[in-house]
Amino acid sequence: MPPVEIYTTRYCPYCHAAKDLLNQKGVSFTEIDVTGNGERRAEMTRRANGGHTVPQIFIGNTHIGGCDDLYELDGAGQLDRLLDRTGAG
Distance between CA atoms of 74 and 67, rounded to whole angstroms? Predict the structure, then answer.
């Protein structure tokens, strides 16, 4: 499985929802909290090609986008493929 990274802030409900989906699927991920950290937020924005809202989610080198994008991929049956899975997780 490629590494999964998610940029978050502490009180973001969309961040919590995205992490909940990843946890439900048994996906290990690295959480990068950008709360009050301008350097990390700038890194996130750069990696996300200008995306400045949280969460910003990456699977390997692929920028997924935010929470809605993650759920859309899952609903379309594409998330498991990106995670190198064949089943429904």
Answer: 11
Strands 62-65, 56-59: parallel, antiparallel or unpaired by DSSP?
A: antiparallel
- Does any domain span residue 88? no
pLDDT digits (tens, 9 = 90+) for 20-37: 999 999 999 999 999 999
Q: Among all chains, which residue has been given the structure tokens 């990068």?
A: 32
User: What value does the CA radius of gyration of the chain take, rounded to a whole number of Å?
Assistant: 12
What domain count does the chain have? 1
Which pTM value belongs to this model?
0.92
Query: Taking a C-beta distance cutoff of 8 angstroms, is the pair 14, 28 a contact?
Result: no
Number of Cβ within a 10 Å radius of residue 70: 23
Assign residue 14 the CATH number of its domain: 3.40.30.10
